[in-house]
Every structure is written in structure tokens, then in C-alpha cells.
User: Fold these one by one.
Assistant:
Number 1:
Amino acid sequence: MSKDRAVEDNANMGKLQISNTIFTGGFNTVTRMHVIKLDIEQSYTDVSDDEAKDQGLSLLSVADDSETKDSAGFGSEVKNDFQHQPNFGEKTRRPLTRKFSVSPTILIPYRLLSIIRILLLGFYLTWRVRHPNHESMWLWRISNTCELWFALSWLLEQLPRLCLINRATDISALKDRFESPNLQNPKGRSDLPGIDVFVTTADPEKEPPLVTANTILSILAVDYPVEKLACYLSDDAGSLLTFEALADTANFARIWVPFCRKHGIEPRNPEAYFKQKHDFLNNEVRLDLAGDWRRVKREYDEFKVRINSLPETIKRRSGSYNAKEELKANMNPSEMGENSSDEIKISKATWMFDGSYWPGTWEVSGEDDHSRGDHVGIIQVMLPSSDAKPVYGSNTNGKHLIDTTDVDIRLPMLVYMSREKRPGYDNNKKAGAMNALLRTSAIMSNGPFILNLDCDHYINNSLALREGMCFMLDKGGDRVCYVQFPQRFDGIDPDDLYANLNTLFLDVNMRALDGLQGPYYIGTCCIFRRIALYAFSPARVTEHHGLFGTRKTKLLLRKVTVSKKEDDEMASQINQCALDCDDDDDDADTRSLLLPKRFGNSTSLAASIKVMEFQGRLLQELESKGNQGCPTDSLTATQEPLDVATVAKAITVISCDYEDNTEWGKRVGWMYGYLTEDVLTGYQMHNRGWRSVYCITKHHAFRGTAPINLTDRLHQVLVWATGSVELFFSRNNSLFATRRMKFLQKVDYFNTSVYPFSSFFILVDCFLPAVSLFSGQFMVQSFVTLLTFNLVDSITLYLHAILENKWSGITITNRWREKQSVVMWGTSSYPAAVLQGLVKLIAGVNISYTLTPKPATPKDGDDEFADLYVVKWSFLMIPPITIMLVNTIAIAVGIARALYNPYPEWSKLIGGVSYSFWVLCHFHPFAKGLMGRRSRALNLFYVWSGLLSIIVLLLSIYIKSSSETQNHMKFLFP
Ligand SMILES: O=c1ccn([C@@H]2O[C@H](COP(=O)(O)OP(=O)(O)O[C@H]3O[C@H](CO)[C@@H](O)[C@H](O)[C@H]3O)[C@@H](O)[C@H]2O)c(=O)[nH]1
Ligand SMILES: [Mn+2]
């Protein structure tokens, strides 16, 4: 698109908005869109003049076309420098990743143990079934069913752990291949593909802006070619608070990012970095680190104060503007078109610092067009994209904080986005936000790869993106739809009371899946291949790559999409789109108007097609530039110029999906209609035949926060478990509906979808000992057999865990926490999830999403774990509390009955009491959470009641056995 055209389109914004209305099809309301013009100097003054000019908060900065072309089209240079190039062939052929299998010394005993356990379980269960307890058949039946179920679920869990693997990356090989001079790239410019980073935030109260700001800073400072990186923040609250916090973050990044690059800082999240202890005398650091550290720290502290006082700042500013407005209106009522002398009511608006209305949500709710679920779409480029050439800073001369003469001071693109929301239309929660980002970014930067982060998950290792790229760009990498990293956490209490670390899932199960078809997508810390999100199958993409750079891309799109039958509609539509591009290449507007007609009034389909179109056009462009032999995936050798016209067109695309909203999530992008979009979205990709990869390393690539408050944790587990139930009921998840998914992978997905249903058996098992104590009927013939079995069972389980520790690092304590949490959640969140899922299935009721509150950054001197002791009531606590009470009472009743009974059945009593105590042990963290700060007393209670019951029992056995010597043998082996 020529410059003139862009200018013309800029002037014709009004016209474009009209075409948007047509574009949204049958929807009546005119879709409006705000592209905000801001001048950062007004609010943030401590920036030098020349810096302020390129400060970025200008209207959707237009990148210089000629520059961009230069950076992309290095074809001509190739010819000139051809003879002078040494041979790099060998160097670039090194593999980027390696795969290890777990050592046989661990694997063989591990498998042996599995077999032993299966045999033991088999023997025990057959014995149980063959020997009914005639005393109490109902107890026998119930406990049998429970045990059969648990055995089965253990088997389901164990099966996928047969092929264990570990992986490693070679970052230096990546550098050699993509960033060293070679024949195609004599200057050694980075040939790494572009990455768009998506961050989502939804509520500045539950998700403190300072936390989000730190995440953004860690992204802006990541070690990746600046011109290939773009960062998008989606704000589902449409809040000015987030907006201004982001603007100030972009500002602070000018200090923070060069500082990180200069000294090789890790981690590049200022809050986490400044918390560390520093050794400035270390030989490996630069001499000026101490000075720079002090100056940057002071800047950060001021930044922190500014961000934390933003709510107050905005409130005060809006207050004074509103008062002024009111005054004005009352002075000249005629101007307001009011004839009466009544006092005029002015709506309490939220004001931006330049004295204009904030188009998003206003603090005072209830305002039409300005509430959480009812506002226009907002898009703002906070930092423009940059050129491929490094820009070096200058030395300290009063203006500049630190000396950056040899430091590249460019910053990646940064965009604020808040999608349009209207009452009566489902916004599809996080999935909706992600898809809006997917479409917006397709038009603005179109990185072939996408990193997805929650607002509280920052990049902890600045090489993380490169690590991910190793998998994507390695041989065979084109079958990888995403690279998932484990979720690691800061700020978890040392005891990890509520099993937040998730070790069993993150360190064992996910790794085991990597030996099959790949780990689940867990919603954050995940790098996607864009094309996999566009519902392509890997086979198709391989074909794509095979032809890439050698034939006509258009031809290729047509050929590829027609050759596969299953992606029917979408394929033919893309096909048509490619044809359209052919017809009238120069008239983009006519084309976008044609699309809705051809495909009905479907906004979302049209939007998805637009995205496809862009991808196609990009390929074409590369093609036409003669970019022959360009490495696969370096699609962004061309940086899409960011011009006003294209971005204005994105307006239609980022708006909420209106009536056709199901189309997007059904076919393209993040899946709609489920509480947890993540597992389902990954499931679809695996089902299409993609594989995913687990990138788990000792240094944690990403870190985030987890709820350490019992109530928050219960609600988080409720959301996850409901997602699983939804997966179970989803049409896709029939064991027979699988298309290209490996069998064991399918088994694991099935297991995931089924675990909340075990809540029924867990509940029963927790009440059984109490019921038997109350009724005086014990559930098995002999507690001795039960205990022996439990012992053997536990031993094999923990031997397993020890072996698992060898390759996953999971400890016995972790294991015990996991076991406790299965019982705790199994009696609270899981049954609630099953109920919610059933209600949705039967009545079609939409389930609401509970956003997990993120802990705020503690101020100096604050208790880091204060949240741990906050007790908030939740209905989910009712069953566990009941179980704890019932079992405690049952123990007392049982003992009392035995003591006052002339013929007490001691063996039954011991069985019942120890079983009840065993149940109570599983609820220890739960009880601690309920007691809050008084939990120390609780520990004493547990120890003493344990000891006491043992003493009482031993005493009574002693008394009993000495008085009835004949019966002695009987009670030991009844
Ligand atoms: O309407 C919404 C709801 C949520 N979010 C964002 O989604 C992310 C995750 O939400 P959170 O409540 O923190 O979920 P968690 O339980 O902490 O997160 C885990 O579980 C979720 C559901 O499976 C995944 O989406 C997350 O990525 C994963 O970290 C946050 O960044 C939110 O801002 C939105 O953008 N819009
Ligand atoms: Mn979270």
C-alpha cells in the first residue's frame, strides 16, 4: 500500500467507520472504535525532548515503508557479497534440540513396579469380591465399588507414563543457524521469526496493575531481536487504570530495558530482580553496575509509587473535571439544550489526563456505553515497531540516567487493546480476549509465533523465547503446534499447603505426555504456531513448507486447501479468498466489502478470512521479493508496515463477535463455550494431528503467582474441574471420535475429563469409617487385611514416587500433598464441578467464571504470606467441614461404645478409629486454612488426638486381653 493511500485513508476515517457498519452485518448498533491520540509529555515529564518525540504514544505510528523493505529485502546484497562468504554449512546443520530417554536403570524398575502393583491390586480386588462381608453387605458393596474405581483410575493415570522422555535445547546452535553470516544472509542479521506476545488482564482490582506492568517489562526486555517482537495487552476491564499504567510502563521501559541489556540482568522483572541479593564486587559484573543499579532502583521505586497511586490520581482528576462540567452546565443551561431551571445531572465520567473522556469503563458504573460489559473497542500503540538496525544510546550527560553508548536502546512494539463489549452478547471470557488479540495482531505485526502469558506470569529467563524457537525451527519442528512451558510460582508458602506447586501434573504427567503426542496447553507460558491456531492440520503445513519459496503461494494455498476433505467449508472459503486477492489486488476496500456478501452476514467468518488473507499476502510478498531458500518459518523477514488504514480495518475484526461469535471459537483460535478454553484448545490441535512439546528446564523460563488463600484455591480448582467435566461432555471427546490422536494420548485426555467424577467415591470413602463406627458394623472382614494391603499399596506407590523423583524431581512430601489435595478437592470443588457440568448439560445454563485474585506486590515489611491466613467463607467448605466433624465425633462415639460395652469388639474399633483418623489426616491443610492464624493450636490438636487415641486403644486392648485371655487370638486374626 502506497504512502499516499495511507494518508488518504487516514483522512477518511469516517468513511471507514461506515464500511465497518456494513461489515458487522445484521447488527444494528454502529460499531464504533476509538483510536486514542495521546501526548505522553503531558503526564510524564521526566523524559528528554528528543526522546519524547519518538515516545510512541502518537496515533498508530506509520512505519517507514522504505526502511522496512530494506530490512527485508536482502536479496540484492546476497549477489554482491557472494564470493566473500566463507562456508558455514557445517555449523548450521547442528540440531537445535535433543531428546533423551530416561535411563534404563530407572525405567526398568519403574515398569516392574507398575506390573507388581497391577498384580497386587488384582489379587486384592478378587479376594475382596470373592469374600463378602455377611455382617454388613451394603458397606461391603459400597467400599468394593470405591476400591475398584480407584484401581481403575490409577491404571488410567499410570498407562501414559510408559514412555518417559526428557528434552534439551541448544541456544548456540540456534544463533549459528539464524543469526550468523551465511550465504543467504551475509550481514548476519537475525533471521529468527517474529513473535507476538499476548498478555491478558481482566480486572485491575483482582489483578494489580503493578503485577501486569512487571510482566510487560519482562517481555519488553527479553533477549530476542527487537524488530521481531510485538507485545499486546488485552484489558477486559476497559479500565483507564490499566491504560495509564501501561503508558507509564512503556515510559519506564526506556530505562529498564537498556539497563537489562547492558548488564545482562536476570530476571528482567524489576520487582523480582530488586528483591534478590546483589554482589557488585563479583568479577563477572561491570564496574558501573552498582551505580546503575542504584539509579534504576530509585526510578523503579518512583514508578511503583506512581502506579500504586494511579487509582487515587484518576479519581481526583475525574472529580475535578466532573465538578467543572457540572458548574459549566449549571451556569449556562441553555447551552445544554435544557429549558427548565432544574439542576442538570452530569454523568460522572472518567477523564484522561489530556482532559478528554475515557472511552472505556467509567469508575461510576451503570453508565450506558461506559460499563464493563458495554463499551467500544479501544486500541492504542504505546510503542511503535522498530527497524532492524540497532540504535545505540548515549553517555550520561545529565539527561540520561545511565551510560548506554554501547547498548541497543530500541524497544519492541507495545499495544493496548480492549475489545468491544455489548450487553446481551457473550464475550467468551479469556478465549474471546485471546481471539481478539489473534485477529488484531494478524493485522498489526502478524508474527508467525505467539506467546501467551497471563498478566501475572513473567519471563524469568530472558532466553525463554529462543528456547521455544529451538523446538519450532528444528528438523521436524513444523509438526509442533505449541511449546508448553511449566507454570512455576513465586510466593507459595513453604509448606505448599494447597498443593499449588502441582508437581504431579507439571513434573510427571506433562513430561510423560511429551513421550506421547505432547503436553496439554495449560493457558499460559505457551508458544503457539500461528497457523495451528488457524485450524490447519500439520500435513497441510508441511506441504506448505515443501513448496515454500519455490512456487506461487496463491497456487499453493488453493492446492493445499482443496487436497484435504475434512476442513471443508473453511478451506473453500480461504480458497475463494486467495482468488479474490487475485482479482482486484489494489482495491482492498472493495474486497472487504465483497466478503460479507459472499459468505452471508457473518462478521466472524469474514474476520477469520481477513486473517488468512493477511497470511497469504505476506507469503506472496516474500515470494515476489525472490526470497528463495529462506529458512522455513522466517515469515516475518518482512515486517508488515503498520499503517492507519489497515489498523482501522482491524476495528471490525477486534470488535466482539456478535451473533456469529461461535464461528470463531468453533473453528479457529481459542475454543469458545467452555470455562477452561486451554485444555480444549490443545485437545483440538492434538486431534488434528499436531504434536506439542514440553520445554521444562532447571532454570524456570516463566514464573507467576498462585492463590495461597484456601478459598481462592478452592474456586480455582472448581474452574479447572468444571472445564474437565465440560471436556467429558463435549462432542469431541468420545473415545471413538478421535481423528489423528495417539491412543495413549487419548487415554490421558479421557482420564483428565473423568477425574472430577471420582468425587462421588471420595465422598463415600470419607464417610464410610464414620458410618461404620456409628453403626458398629465394620466394612471389611478384618482390618488387618485392609491395613496390610494399605501398607503394601503405599510402599509400592512411594517406591514409584522415589523412582519418579529420579527423573522428575518430585518429592515424597509433594506426593503426600497431592494425595491430600485429591481428597480435599474431591469433597469440595470436584462435586460442585460435576453438578455445574450436569446443570449446563441438561438446562444449558451458562457457568460463570471466577477470576483468581493475584496477590499484590508486598511493600517492604509486609508479611508475604498474609493472604494465607485470611479466612473467607465459601459454600465449597461445607462438605469437608462436615466430614471432619462427623469423623471426629465418630471416633469419640466408637471409643465410648467400646468402653461401656461388656463385650466390645476391639478389632472393629481399631479399624474404624484408625480409618477415621486417616481421613482426618488428609484434611489437615484444609483445617489449617480454616483456622487461619490460630493454626498452630491445630497442629497440637492433631498430634495429641493421634497420640491419645493410640494410648487409649492400647490401654483398652491391654485391659481386654488380660481379662479375656481365651479371646486373645481371635481379636488379632478374626
Ligand atoms: O474474562 C476474562 C477472564 C480471564 N481473563 C484472563 O485470563 C487469565 C487467567 O485467569 P485466572 O483467573 O488467573 O485463571 P487461573 O486459574 O489463575 O489460571 C489458569 O487456568 C485458566 C483456565 O484454565 C487458564 O486460562 C490460565 O491461563 C491458567 O493460568 C488472566 O490473565 C485473566 O486476566 C481474561 O482476560 N478475560
Ligand atoms: Mn493465574
Number 2:
Amino acid sequence: MVVGVTGGIGSGKSTVTGLFKEMDNVVLYIADKEAKKLMNHSSKIRQAVILEFGKESYKDGILNRAYLSECVFNNKEKLKRLNAIVHPEVHDHFGEFLKEHEKAIIIYENAILFEIGSDRFCDVIITVFTEEKERIRRVVERDNTTEKEVLDRIKNQWKDEKKIMLSNYIITNNFMNRLHSQVKQIHNILTKKMNYI
Ligand SMILES: CC(C)(COP(=O)(O)OP(=O)(O)OC[C@H]1O[C@@H](n2cnc3c(N)ncnc32)[C@H](O)[C@@H]1O)[C@@H](O)C(=O)NCCC(=O)NCCS
Ligand SMILES: Nc1ncnc2c1ncn2[C@@H]1O[C@H](COP(=O)(O)OP(=O)(O)OP(=O)(O)O)[C@@H](O)[C@H]1O
């Protein structure tokens, strides 16, 4: 069973996913992390990225994230092109992962699940919700970045209302101490659903 976990930047997806990880029959697929690995190790992606964005895209052989962020998050057309290079490869990679974990609850964390059509892989979708102002505050603190940089990413993501309308479960992440019970409750339901698959 594929359970998509999505939500805007800084909403708490990784925190929620971390709680699921401790629960029975759960495996994780973190799309962001796998995308980065592929961008560093797939020669097909590397060549396409360099062709599109130049040699500066890699520094000492490693993906130059700061440079690429600068290129894409203020230019929708360029972001579209980067997405078109990276996402088909991530989707293929995820397809292989699925085959290996057919009997598990697969927690599939993806910040832009709906935006790139990855919701089509999911049996169930959870949106993690936190007010935008609080998300900005948390990310600025976590990444030692600026409000503008966070807003540049938010501009390229769907509004929460739209994601919520298309989700099966909403986790509200105002308080850390209220997260575990919400995650546990959903895990119990998913475990029951698994018995019917
Ligand atoms: C441009 C890159 C190199 C910047 O790396 P950086 O470490 O600064 O950011 P990171 O990847 O950790 O993303 C931080 C947050 O930005 C947002 N974000 C990332 N990629 C995108 C995107 N394509 N569209 C909208 N928001 C995005 C997400 O909320 C994410 O959690 C990187 O974001 C990237 O390669 N993106 C393309 C791959 C991708 O879409 N990954 C996300 C899901 S698979
Ligand atoms: N309820 C909470 N109260 C306070 N801080 C929180 C709460 N939940 C998460 N955080 C913190 O907020 C930051 C963002 O959380 P997290 O990394 O889980 O979000 P994310 O949605 O995975 O972010 P991104 O989209 O950037 O990958 C982290 O530093 C995390 O420790």
C-alpha cells in the first residue's frame, strides 16, 4: 500500500515520516533524498542538467544545490525543465522500490506529490498542515536561510486548501506533542486496510 505524505515546505513531513518509521510493517521512500542521490549518481541526469544549466551545476563533482536553487526557484520555466529531467528517473526508481515492498505500508514522502502527478502512485494520501507563517519561521530557523528563499519555494507549490481537498487524512502540526497520536491513529486504520489487500 502506497501512502503519500505531502505538505508545503516546513510543514513537518519529515517529522511525521520519522514517527511512522517506528511503526509496524512500515518502509520509507523519501523522494527528495532519492532525487538528490540520482542527481549525483545518474550520468543521464548529470548530462542533461549540465546541458540545461551549465557546468556550474556540479561543484567538485557534487550537485551544486545553491546554484541550481538560484536558477530555478525564481523562474517557472527553468523549474519545469529541471523537473522534467529529474522526475521521470525518480518515478522509475520508485517503481522498482514498490516491487520489492509489495506487502508493506510504504510511506512515500514527497513535498510536491500533487504538483508533479505522483499522487497517481498512491492508495492513500496524507497532507501535513501547518500555517504558512509558522512554516517560514521553522525553515528559516532550521536551514539558517531567509524568508525570501522560503517564499520562493512556496510560490512553486500548490496552496494547502487544494492539497487538503484531495487528501484522505490531514495531520495538523501545531504542536509536536500532538503528532504521535495522530500518526498512530492513521497507522491503525492503514493496518486494518492492509488486511483487505
Ligand atoms: C533545486 C535543488 C537542487 C535545491 O536543493 P535544496 O537542497 O536547496 O532544496 P531541497 O531539495 O532540500 O528542497 C527543499 C524544499 O524545497 C521545495 N522544493 C524542492 N524541489 C522543488 C520543486 N521542484 N518544486 C517546488 N518546490 C520544491 C520542497 O518543499 C523541499 O522540501 C533541489 O530542490 C532539486 O533538485 N529539486 C528538483 C528535484 C525535486 O523536485 N525534488 C523534490 C521532490 S522529488
Ligand atoms: N510541531 C512542531 N513544532 C515546532 N517545530 C516543529 C514542529 N514540527 C516540526 N518542527 C520543526 O520544523 C522544521 C521543519 O520540519 P520538517 O523538516 O519535518 O518539515 P518538512 O515538511 O519535512 O520540510 P521540507 O519541506 O523543507 O523538507 C524542523 O526543524 C522540525 O524539527
